[in-house]
């Protein structure tokens, strides 16, 4: 993991990094005083590691709770090259939307494919983060994501024992995701917009029902995907603070 | 409204009152320093104004947020006489439960009948509370309830313009409640237990969908009716603080 830039603003240190083909960013308190946990943030499909909503949440978490937050570009997103298949999918989604046709199946196929590549990338990123001086093997780790970042997060959390709590936003649900949710036992919160016309309520409820976690919460709110209200960001920070307190804290 | 007792413990003043046939209790900061809002708390069926969960929430709201909280016994509950019809209903519920039969229809009939009597009682209580020196016409008012307290709260909020935000817990849902929800436009939060075997998920979702509020949130959580986790109590307090800040606050 190579840090390629470092800037500091309003008490938040922002460091861009590269790890093999992965481009990422790490936010932490500029004071150097960090609290658990380390959060992995998975951006939405078509967005990138510095998507406005993701950055707003990261800044809130770092500023108000002292968390450390890491985000990486998904394959074919942000600073990473798009291959021909990525390009085809992006065009198919745009065309379906322009024609007023449902995009869910195209998005599901695309997200599944990208997430399959992203899971080992997150695991490699996690290895590298845990090798940093400020993060150790005892630092509890959480995952938070939206759309594509939910698909990746569900597949990652189902197989990666280092993820100890997860917060998921809206996603198009298929059987593969429900299957992944059945393998997840850590505390989960799942936040969905109730009134978005593309949103599949029944799929969301099936996904929530599938989580095998002893502690799980579904938050449905009026309105669409964006903006996420500030109180929901804060509720999410509280969820992580509650479930990922350092065991050896003084 | 006649205060019949006054005690103070851990910074919370508790005053019991009588208003005609209504028996009630009012909690407020012993310091006398109150913040908005005034919350009306509706207890669950078979419980009373000092049900343990209701008291725990009231103490949390008063201690941490400076709210004032009022609760009254529903007709036939707590310190109020049970008439023959109340008695019949209570026995019918006990018998159905003992026989392992569904109780929902009996509870729905009973709650509807009790709530119809409770709505004007809450309105009279509100008139009397607003006549107290520490509560004025500008004090924003919220309503929070569980089961029977939800039925009453839905019917009250649908017709009473003084209720400016409402928090509802689990309830057996019928068409009358869905109809009441359609007339509710103030901010609403609705908290349901996901794993209680008596709980009707489809009914809960129909009720949530029916609220005409621009701001509404559904919180579903793993586990049964009780206990309500401390973080949900706090989330509820934040909901009221956010939506019921005093307009003329300095």
TrEMBL record, chains A, B:
Q: Which UniProt keywords apply?
A: Hydrolase
Q: Which domain of life is it from?
A: Bacteria
Q: Name one GO molecular function term.
A: hydrolase activity
Q: What is this protein called?
A: Alpha/beta hydrolase
Species: Mycolicibacterium sphagni
Task: State the organism's lineage.
Answer: Bacteria, Bacillati, Actinomycetota, Actinomycetes, Mycobacteriales
């Amino acid at each position: 993991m190579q840090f390629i830039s470092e800037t500091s603003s309003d008490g938040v240190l922002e460091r861009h990094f590269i790890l093999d083909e992965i481009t990422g960013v790490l936010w932490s308190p500029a004071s150097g005083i960090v609290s658990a946990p380390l959060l992995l943030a998975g951006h939405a499909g078509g967005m990138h590691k510095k998507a406005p909503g993701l950055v707003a949440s990261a800044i809130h978490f770092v500023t108000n709770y002292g968390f450390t937050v890491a985000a990486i570009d998904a394959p074919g997103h942000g600073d990473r090259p798009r291959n021909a298949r990525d390009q085809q999918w992006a065009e198919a989604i745009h065309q379906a939307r322009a024609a007023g046709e449902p995009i869910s199946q195209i998005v599901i196929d695309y997200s599944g494919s990208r997430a399959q590549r992203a899971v080992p990338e997150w695991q490699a990123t996690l290895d590298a983060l845990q090798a940093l001086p400020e993060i150790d093997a005892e630092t509890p780790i959480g995952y938070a994501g939206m759309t594509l970042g939910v698909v990746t997060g569900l597949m990652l959390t189902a197989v990666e024992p280092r993820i100890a709590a997860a917060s998921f936003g809206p996603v198009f649900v298929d059987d593969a995701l429900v299957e992944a949710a059945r393998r997840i036992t850590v505390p989960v919160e799942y936040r969905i917009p109730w009134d978005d016309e593309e949103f599949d309520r029944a799929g969301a409820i099936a996904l929530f029902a599938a989580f095998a976690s002893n502690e799980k919460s579904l938050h449905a709110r009026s309105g669409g995907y964006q903006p996420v209200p500030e109180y929901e960001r804060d509720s999410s920070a509280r969820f992580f603070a509650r479930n990922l307190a350092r065991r050896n804290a003084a």
